[in-house]
Structure formats: structure tokens, C-alpha cells
Amino acid sequence: MARAIELIGITKRFPGVVANDKVDLAVEQGEIHAVCGENGAGKSTLMKILYGMQNADEGTMKVNGQEVRFHKPTDAIDLGIGMVHQHFMLADQLTVLESVILGSEPTLAGGRIDFAAAKAHLAEVSQAYGLNVDPDQLIESLEVGERQRVEIIKVLYRGAKILILDEPTAVLVPQEVEELFRNLRELKANGATILFIDHKLAEVLAIADTVTVLRQGRSVATVKAADVTAPQLAELMVGSELPTPATSESTVTDDVVLQVRDLQINEAGRPVVSDVNIVIRRGEVVGVAGVEGNGQAALVDGIIGTRPVAGGTIELLGDDVTRQSVRHRRERGIGYIPQDRQREGLLLLAPLWENAALGHQTQAPYSQGFWMNRSGMRTATQEIRSEFDVRTPNIDVAAHALSGGNQQKFIVGREMHSQPTLLVAAHPTRGIDVGAQAAVWDQLKAARAAGLATLLVSADLDELIGLSDTIVVMFRGRIVATLDPAKVTPRDLGAYMTGAATQDDAA
Amino acid sequence: MTRIASVLRRIKTDAAAPVMALVFAVAASSVVLLVAGSNPIQAYSDMLKHASKLETMIDILNRATPLFIAGIAAAIGFRMNLFNIGVEGQYLLAALVAAHVGGLVHLPAPLHIALILLVAMSVGAAYSGVAGVLKVTKGVHEVISTIMLNAIATSGLIVAGLQAWQAGGGLGGNVTRVGTTPIDESGRLPNLNGFVEIFTRDIGRDRELTGVLVVAIAVGVAYHVIVGRSRFGFDLRASGANPFAAHVGGIPPKRMIVTAMVLSGAVAGLVGMTEIMDGGVFPANPIQGLGFAGIAVALLGRNSAIGALVAALIFAFLDISSGILQNTGSASREIVQIMQGLIILAAVVAYQVTERARAREEAKAAATALAAVAS
User: Fold this and answer.
1) ipTM
2) A193-198/A17-27 β-pairing
3) Which tens digits make up the pLDDT trace of B151-193?
4) CATH hierarchy code of domain A5-238
């Protein structure tokens, strides 16, 4: 039987970079094939080519033995290839059934939608692949894992036999990951071929039959998952040992930097943060774990001052700053690494040396009284560039020209350069490659050793456990657990994050 | 060295778009002229010959002065991502109130002038501030509110003000509409003819170079320095470029919106000064449309002071040229408006094109730098 997918010598160039350099990939019928590599290794580009979203410059593509050329995703769909994107494309107000048939609705005479037929077909598909969904439920009432299942069914409904899943576990907690893997095995048992993109090694080894590793745009190896260990895979991915976030001995002191008491924050009249108490001391990293949307973002906004506080107090170095402006707080030494660097961290069209001043524009060396200090800004930017290894041709380029990892290093550098007393870091390594991630971790560790107090919000549980001195778990706006990272596993954290466990159970 | 080179490159790319736009506009206008049966070469040479006369240059400067101020007023809004369409209503209302107040009081010259300028700026600022406050408190888009405020000013407040304040105290019947009470000589800006004549022959035919030109230059310099170099200017540009990033950077977005609208209105208040400080009254039929022209000036000038200066001079030149085309008969005077429209259209397109080209080039340079380090 011909291979489900065969890519030979695929090359794709973008201005200045080769995203894919003669990549080979062979996926057998009915297997789960993982494609792994660091961010920027070329995984996404390869999948976009395979799904017809981009054209390869060179190379051959075969599906079920037939040579093909895709120009748009519908070409791929016609051949039974479906893609489940990392970010769900579902509308909250639709039911599961409506979401699934959206865009390929069976119609009756007069253009009416044949819901009965649609429902029957949906039932057939979920039966065939063992995926259970209630077709009449509203999307907004579904958990993240269930939404993902809807996305998968949506693809199957259109007749896909080959599924591409783009980092499907990125948004899931460990329990949901297990559920997903059960579903994937079910799909495989029913004859589907799955192409699974990931960079978490344990997961890859748990689910895949075969693994293809990409590094710097090249396919460096294809191995049987059974024949390889996680460290070996890691070495293939990065070409060396994998860095870890783990910190050395505690540097926690007794000096309280941030004291949050009984904090309540409302959104549209409803509390999204309630009764939150946090203390962070000099040299301490407090990690905040939680499934996204459980109040972490509001907590961060409340501490830096962009969102009004409904109740409770925030004290910085003993001063009540609850009602103070963002600027006042930043002048008092709050550094901030926002979760969305492009939205909240950068002026994308402005040169780097102007971006360096953002958030610190009232302070030396960026300004003197009424005036900005251009030479001070430029010097500081050069320092940030060299100390934090920001790879840029010069400091006059606009921020958008930098790669994601370099933008992040630049933001971290900017915040560290002013020697903050409290750093609020929201997902500081999200979406950046392993090299940049290690650099950011090193900076956070060094700053901690130098006495920085850090509030670290992250979805990467290994990062949280590795870097934090204390971990608090937020669930529905409250802190449901305070844990010692030395004694906790990602699995335990996951249980608290989903509300499956509370600290009382554990005690 | 590389810094100088990059600055030079930046100037080159900055100037490339307006020059392309001008060339295109001239070429397209030539086609229009040919189609209309006129000789484009003849028309252009008439325009240039006319413009090279000293008196015409004075006319152009007099016209460019309010255009430039209006352009700066619009540019302040644009820097903050605000579309202040209300410059029109703001300057007319400001000029009316300033003329009225100036006509009422009798003061020594510097004080009198300062008072009139202050009143004009305050009225413009307050009227524009209304739009700013509506935006931050009620979420009313500034385009909508300023259009409404324009209508209220031009067809409501100004008509009522003119009737109430017309010279002679209203005379009951308002049979003759003569504008506001004339301002004393002490409240008018002297013309700059004496200054110009140091360098040139005497200016003939009753031409007077407006003293407001000095005000315009001051506005331009202040704008350039404050927006480009001050902390406030940094906050303004940051907030306009990315309000979310600016907010976490300590710049309150709502306050910046109101401040930008107020400043834009304050500058807009000065647009009408050429009328009331040269003529001494707010006339029954004031010059209108300068506010809208100012938007075009800001657009063509890319919100920079120097750009606005060049743009104001180009538009003023075209405005003044329409008369000569009529007189010589080498082309219809409407060609001037067609050219103005074409320039704006071409400029908008050209800016987009060069902006994208620059972004691409930068991304490429950054990627190359990255690759060089990696290998």
C-alpha cells in the first residue's frame, strides 16, 4: 500500500531565511507520525505547505502515492487531508452541530439547511471514530478539550482520512492531554492517519509510532518512537543537551516587596479575581498556575495598574499603590513582561531605541525632565542589545523586523535594564525557540539571585516548577492551592488547575 | 558612520513617496489637460511664471500660512491616531470669539495680541475637547462628533454670534451684515513687508505679507520639537502607535486622547488669525474650508512639520495659480483642484508602497543578521 504522505526534498524560502531546506517526510498509512523540532525549525511552514496554505519552492509531494500540487486548502481537503489548528476557529454562539457543518451544510430545496441529515452524518462520524459529542450543546459551554474534539470532528465530517494536528496539546492540561491521546488512538484504530506536531518530548513519545525531527529547516532524522528515549530526541532537536529551567538553592529573603491582600477585580460586574492574597519577597519567584481564563490575566493587570481594583490592597515596598497610576507603579520599580509581546510590549513600527524607553520614559537615561534623551536612549538600547543578545542588524530597525525570540529577549532586556524591584512576567517564554527560552530563564534566575522579586504567570508547568520558589494555583479567580515546587508534579498541578483537587483533599 | 548612512537612507525613503506622488499627479494632470484640449506645457509654464513674481509669492505665503497651521492641527490628532475633522468648526468659532473679544477691549499692543491669540486657542481647544471627552466617556468616535460639532459651529453658533456681535451692536434689524466690531490697531499683527523688502525690491500692488506667518513658524517649530523630542511627544506617539503597549508603559490612554484633541483644537484656533489679525474683523463671509484643506496638508506632509510646510506651499501655489490660468486662458481653473486631488490620492498610495518596501527590507536585514550569527 502506498504511503499516506510522502514529501521529497521540500524547500521553502522566505526573504533572508530558508524555512524548509530539502525536507523529507514519509508517513505510512494508519500511523501516528509526530513532527517535532524547536520553534523556528520549520514545522509550521511544512504543515502549511502540506495543507495547501503555502507553495513549496522545490520538491515533490505525494498523497497516497499520487503526486500532487496544492494551491489552496480545499485542494488538500478534497484529497482527504484535514487540519486542526492550534487556535480554535469556533464561534461561541453556535451549537456543536452548527459549528461542525459550517461551510459544508447539507441543504434541502430552497437553500434550507438539512439539519436532520447533518445530525445523522455527525452521529455516523462520531460513532465511526469513537468521539463523543452532544450535537446540541453550545460551544461556549464546552471545556477546552471538548472544543478541540469538535475541531477534530469537523475535519472528519468533511471526509478527512489524514489529520494534521498543530500543537494540539499546547492549550490542554495534563488530564485533557490523556483524553486527547485516547481519542487519537481510537482514530488510528479506525484507519485514520495522524500527523502530530509538537515539541514536548514526553508527549511525542507517548503517542507517536514514528517521529521525524526537524532542525533549522532540515529533516535530521526519522525514528521509531519505541527505539528512542527523550534525551536522545532532545539531542536530535537542538543538537545538544536540552536546557532546563531548574534553579539552584533558594535566594528568598525576609524583605517583602509585594503584598497583595484580599484582592478583588471585577469584569462586567462579576468578580474575576476574588480574595487573592500573595506575598513576594526579595529574591523570591512566585509562580501562578492556572488554565487560561481563571483570573491570572486580571491579576496581572491589577498589579501593574491597567485594571481598576474592586477591593483589597496592593502594597509595593510597604506603600499602598492600590489607587496609583501605572506610571507611578513603574517608577516605583515594577517591570513587566506582557503575555502578548506584540500587543502590549512593543511599538512595532518604531525603531528599537524608541521601544527601549517605553515604560521607562520618565526615568534616566531615557529622559531628562521635560525632554527625551536621545543619546541616552541609544546607549541604553545598545547595552540591552549586547547584554541580552538581541540579534538585530542595528538599533534603528523597527521592532516588527525582529523574530519572536529576539523581540522577547529585547523586552526582557528592557525591563531588566532598569533594575526593577518587582518583575511581573506573564508567559515570558511563550512561543519562542529553545535557545531564546534558555536565555530568558538565565536572565530570570540571575535577577532572582540579585534580589529581584518575581511574579511568574505561565502555562508551561515545567517552567513554573523549575523557576518558582512558591506556586499558587488559580481556579475561577481564587487561589485554590499554595504548593512547594520541589514536591509537586505537573500532574498534581493539573488536578488543582481543573478544580479536580483542592488543597483540603491533599491535606 | 552607519548611523549617518541610515539617516540618509531614511530621508531618501521618506522623500521618495511624495516625489513619486507629485510626478504622478503632474503626469496625470497633463493627460487631463490634453483631453480637455489645453496645452499642459503652456499651462504649467504660465503657473510657474506667475508664481515667480514677488507679489504672487506673497499671495502664496499668505495662503500657505493658515493651511500650514491647519495641517499641524490635524497632524497632532493623526499622531495620536485621532481623525480631527473638526478643525474647520474649531477655527471658525475660535476666530469669531477672538475677533469679538479683541474688538471689545482696548489694550497696549503686545497684550492685546496675546489676548486675542489666547482666546482663539482656548475656544478651539475647548470645542475640540468636547469631542475628546465624548470619545473617552461615551465612546463616540471623534469623526462623528467633530462632523456634528462642525455643523453646530458653522450653521448655528457662528450665525448666532455674528448676529449678536455684529459691528454697531446689532442695530436691531441686522440689515447690513458687516462682521464683528473692528479690532484696534493694537490688536493686529503688523505685516512683514518691511522685513521682506530688506532682501527684495519694494512690494507693489497693496500686497501685505501676513504677520501670522511668524505665529505659524512658531507653531511649526514647537510642534517639531515637542512631538519629536519631548517626553510628552514620546507619550503621544507611543499612545497613537499602540495604545495597549502605551498603557502598560504608564501612559493613560484616555487622558492622552483628551490632551491630543485639546492641543489639536488649540492649534486649530490659530488658523483663522490671518483673517482677523490682518483684517481686524471676523467678516460676514469668512474664508471656509481651511480646516479640511489642513487634513490634506497633514496627509501629504506625513504629519511632520517640514512635510506640512512643503505641502502647504504646494497647495497654496496651486490655489493661487487658478486665477492666472483663468486670466491667460491656457487652461480651465478647475485643473488646480484636480491636481490637488490627484496629489493626495497618489501620495496615499505611494506612502503605502514605500512603507511596505521598507518593512520588507528591514525584516530581510534582521533575518540576515540572525542567519549570520547562527551559521
Assistant:
1) 0.83
2) unpaired
3) 999 888 888 888 888 766 544 444 455 778 888 888 888 888 8
4) 3.40.50.300
